[in-house]
């Protein structure tokens, strides 16, 4: 009887360890799915969060010629996206800046253009 209880206790401990390892592996996987995007900031907005609309493969001069609606449609067609950023970063960047953004692609909010949370953002200077 004593051996049986001891065996069950050991099996229970092994099971708990396996579950905790599996849970930590899932959270690490989220961190490993960081992707990078580069483009021009074509719009900024303050909603519940501070967001920037970044569109790749356009020229800075193009954004001055378009309305906000046209820029949003252009971003949707050209793989642009909204990125939520912290307020200090939001204050330090401007429309027309070229940026490089790291973001978690698992955290997408379905919309056109899609919305992500930026993990890191850098302004690219020529």
Automatic annotation (TrEMBL):
<dbReference type="Pfam" id="PF11518">
    <property type="entry name" value="DUF3221"/>
</dbReference>
<dbReference type="InterPro" id="IPR021598">
    <property type="entry name" value="DUF3221"/>
</dbReference>
<protein>
    <recommendedName>
        <fullName>DUF3221 domain-containing protein</fullName>
    </recommendedName>
</protein>
């Amino acid at each position: 009887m004593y051996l049986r209880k001891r065996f069950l206790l050991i099996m229970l401990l092994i099971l708990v360890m396996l579950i905790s390892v599996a849970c930590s592996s899932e959270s690490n996987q989220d961190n490993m799915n960081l992707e990078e995007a580069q483009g021009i900031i074509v719009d900024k907005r303050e909603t519940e969060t501070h967001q920037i609309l970044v569109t790749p493969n356009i020229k800075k001069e193009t954004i001055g010629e378009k309305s906000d609606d046209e820029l949003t449609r252009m971003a949707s067609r050209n793989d642009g996206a909204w990125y939520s950023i912290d307020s200090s970063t939001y204050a330090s960047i401007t429309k027309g800046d070229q940026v490089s953004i790291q973001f978690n692609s698992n955290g997408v909010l379905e919309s056109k253009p899609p919305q992500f949370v930026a993990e890191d953002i850098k302004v690219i200077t020529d």
